[in-house]
Amino acid sequence: MHTEVFNATLMKWYEGMLDLKIDMTTLDLLQCVIVVSPDRPNIKGRDTLEQSYAQYIECLRAYCKVAYPESHLMFHRLLSKLTEVRTIGTAFGRSISSECESIIREHPLVSEIWNHD
């Protein structure tokens, strides 16, 4: 379903995450930041998400200071990983869209969910 380029990009991201040697709490906080990111299209309650996003970002920043005192750049490295996640997500969305176009067209319910605004 995915191209070799997409898979290589994804593997590079995984390897970069492994190189950071983060703990589970950091991973959990990072996942929260990703999930509540208010910059996706068709989001309802954007103000609430923005508040939650800001709180999780601040939690991640504070936790990085405590958990990784020897690495003053850990928080910034994690933020750069968020940018990579967005890029991978966009590429995945394009891939799914093009691969599943016929399914989306043929099934009205799938089409309604996929194109929901």
Automatic annotation (TrEMBL):
GO biological process annotations for this chain's record? cell differentiation; negative regulation of transcription by RNA polymerase II; positive regulation of transcription by RNA polymerase II
Please name the GO terms that the record assigns under molecular function. nuclear receptor activity; RNA polymerase II cis-regulatory region sequence-specific DNA binding; zinc ion binding
Leader sequence range is none
The entry's keywords: DNA-binding, Metal-binding, Receptor, Transcription, Transcription regulation, Zinc, Zinc-finger
Keyword Membrane in the entry? The reply is: no
Segments spanning the bilayer are: none
Does Cell inner membrane count among this protein's keywords? no
Q: Which domain of life is it from?
A: Eukaryota
Recorded GO cellular component terms are: RNA polymerase II transcription regulator complex
InterPro entries linked: NHR-like_dom_sf, Nuclear_hormone_rcpt_NR1
Report the PANTHER family cross-referenced here.
Answer: BILE ACID RECEPTOR-RELATED, NUCLEAR HORMONE RECEPTOR
The protein depicted here goes by the name Bile acid receptor-like
UniProt lists the gene as: LOC109478504
